[in-house]
Design a protein that fits this description.
- It is globular and about 65 Å long.
- It is built from 11 helices and 18 strands.
- The longest helix has 13 residues.
- It is of the alpha/beta class.
Amino acid sequence: MQTRGAVIRQAPGKYEVVDLEVDDPQNGEIQVQMVASGMCHSDDHVATGDIPVGVYPFAGGHEGAGIVTKVGPGTRGYKEGDHVVFSFLPGCGRCRWCATGQQNLCDLGSTLLQGSRWDDPESFRLHLDNGQPVGQMCGISTFCETTTVAIDSAVVVPDDIPLDKACLVGCGVGTGWGSAVNSAEVKPGDTVIVMGIGGIGINAVQGARHAGASNIIAVDPVAFKREKAQELGATHAVDSMEEATELAKQFTNGQGADSAIVTVGVTKPEHVGQAFAAIRKAGTAVVTGLGDISEVGVPIAISELTLFQKRLQGALFGASAPSFGILRQLEMYQQGHLKLDELITKTYSLDEIQQGYQDMHDGKNIRGVIIY
């Protein structure tokens, strides 16, 4: 069938909305009419070229929710009319990582940027009207009005949850919340620094608050973002890591923060070094943000790593299992323990996607959401 979607034709480049042909679902696939899509910074990394992809044109979007309109032959567990939230990380349920409770590291993740079906690099679900293949971001491409995806990437959610809010738990909420709760292992009474308050960092603040941290120091140069951080649980908000580090020492008798979580939109090696320097002995620096993925090297002292027994921890989707974590976070939302409505700064139409990303770069948005 025909649909419309936002694609990048080359990198660096800008998203443009074009007419697309989308395949009917095959076995193990569903077709979904999108209701909403979050505008994550990772899709902008694709546009800038920080994250190279396997094929151009490439249809963006990896944080979305919608309603199932077709189910592939022989596909169990889904029916037309189901409400689904996409997980940007698929889960096969069979590989070593899924079998040991680390679904966020599923082996299918190795194909997220190739743009084709998982099992066939020559098979694409999206095409231009001239037949040219179009890659799918994370195998889902939520910047399309209708998309066809593998069921490995879709979680059925209760019908009474608003999908324009639920879309956020497919990436930003779980990534930030889990970075604090799972990766940093925040404990009651901890002092935590969250570096960078965007769609991920704001949820790291929520996670640290939920875990019982006494001091949550949000760091961002944009005053609006510092204000939002305090609305969602930060106890302090400053514009530099120097000030955050000094505050953490004041709260801990000079020891430093128990953990520092790096959620900067374009993460650079120096950000990791600053977080590492801010934590106490046996503390944890969590790196969640992305930048140029070809960049190598982090400015930390090996002696400090060894003799102070500090931990440098990466975090993918906050070390959460998507098929469980998405539903748990939506339960928390329904119970009033997790804020979603407050994360959405502004909504856009698909045709306004470039304005949405400009607003993100200008520091005007915590999360922009496309409404279909």
